[in-house]
Amino acid sequence: MNQEDFTSDRDAITDYRSDRPQAPSATATQPQTEVTLAYQVAMPTPANHLFEVTLCVSGWQQAVLDLKMPVWTPGSYLVREYARHVQDFTATAEGQASPRSWRKLSKNHWQIDTAGCRTITVRYRVYANELTVRTNHLDQTHGYFNGAALFFYVAGYQRQPYQIAIAPPANWHVSTALAALADATNTFVAENFDILVDSPFEIGNHFIYDFEAAGKPHQLAIWGTGNVNPSSIVADMQKIIQVESDLFGGLPYDRYLFLLHLATNGYGGLEHRNSCSLIYHRFGFRVRDKYERFMQLVAHEFFHLWNIKRLRPDALETFDYEQENYTPSLWFSEGTTSYYDLLIPLRAGIYPVGSYLNSLSRELSRYLTTPGRKVQPLSESSFDAWIKLYRQDANSPNNQISYYLKGEMVTLMLDLLIRDRHANQRSFDDVLRLLWEEYGKPEIGFTPAQLEKAIESVAGIDLSDFFERYLHSTEELPLNEYLLRFGLQLQPEGSDLPFTGMTLKVEHGRHLVKFVEIDSPAQQAGIDASDEIIAINGWRATPEQWGDRLREVQPGDVIQVSYFHQDELRQSPLLLGEPRPAHYHIVPVAEPTTQQAENFLGWLGVPLHELI
């Protein structure tokens, strides 16, 4: 999943038997009886945002039926408590007029009394009014849902097939990567609950575009309106698919579905086994850099069909839907994917090397201006994703670093290290191919040690010191050292304003503090996030005037800052610091050596002198 939000299925029932399904959930056991599980999802009144769900369990022979709803969805590592949207739960048995008694045993666990019942029908409704790639959304224009956020699983029967019938409003159609039953309208089959969770549905009047890429059928489904040009998107998707297919040696599916939601706000994606969900600004396609950012999102989520959906850490080999699933290896699953989501469009010819280096410069700037990189190790960032990454607060930049971002930087260093040692005859591409053959194709989860061993085998060097320093400690990454081997260097772009340590934003005409860097002049002055800045040295400092006021003073000066703290007017002295770099740019060295030029050409495919 893309960090900023940045998040499947089978095409025919017979195909499931020849392609190993998604990892079974932790409590799954082989059922002892012939039980059939069939869902129906209806939406008779879309304006009320309620999906009406019916589960029919047939062939039941036990005294109780335990139903559990996932608390999270794979690809988005946060306990989201999907059960909070469930309402109007009832259970009946075939041939019995009275409802069956039931009870809740925990936040996501319903238990129904079923003694003497062979067929039980469960009905409930799910409120769906959150438009993201990991939740559900239903209104007059469409219905979209993720399996984890809509469906219960029958405890102990997660490996059973699930049938899903959709009852849409008139003239709505259904898009999903699940296999359709030939003899039933809008009815689909998932081989097990994991496949069901991994199969989002789009239901409505969305536009559908069929195309072929790398010899296999694909489909783009677009909901919403904006300035999107489907033909351009499809053409560039075809290029991305081909490049990634070539990298891994072919496509591991029979067909693939891209679901794209166009919204006023929102950005992100969620990967699935044979599909992905994307959300992007409806008017974000005509400005070139925004369009390129969208194609990077596509490259990221598509890359995940190998890296995480099939090639995954052993801790995610078996899903436990009731609690956190911890791994220190998301730096590879997400960070390496983030490194390649910039490279893939370059290799596909979607943008030139200058655009690639500009995008990489933005990522490097984000990393080097995040104080938390000096506090949280990369492996800990991955392990603590459940409590930190998706729960940002005013202090988050001070005490954490994204495993997407630092993982991308570490992968960059490893790729350059391998290329430099082997004259571009080896690269991190070879690491991916090795891991794919050993763990991805057979879908055997890898351990952190196995991941490191695979990288070392391609690099041809002991990297234990590298991993200790850059995965498990907070030592600064020597990025410039690695870039110099390829004729590049980091050029800081300093601000002309004295350093205060405050990040400010304008909200309803008020000049509010969004973030205060640890140990900065602002923090030492007692200024806090959410304070409202109103004056410097007794002079009003509106958002428009802020920069001008700071240009009138010098580093080392002490200014008096007037501000409201929880509606209390305060004034504090603030010692201004030296200006800090706000951005970093990757630029060529003035006189590259022959070796640097050869390294650069082998890495990015164009002569270095074209950038000078």
From TrEMBL:
Biased composition (Basic and acidic residues): 7-20
Every Peptidase M61 catalytic domain range: 294-410
Annotated stretches, region: Disordered: 1-31
Domain (Peptidase M61 N-terminal): residue spans on this chain: 39-205
The protein's name: M61 family peptidase
